[in-house]
Amino acid sequence: MNITQIKDQKFTRPEAAEYIGVAARTLANWHSSGRVKIPFYKVGRKKTIYLKSDLDAYLASVRQSA
Question: Residue 26: is its pLDDT beyond 90?
Answer without folding.
Answer: yes
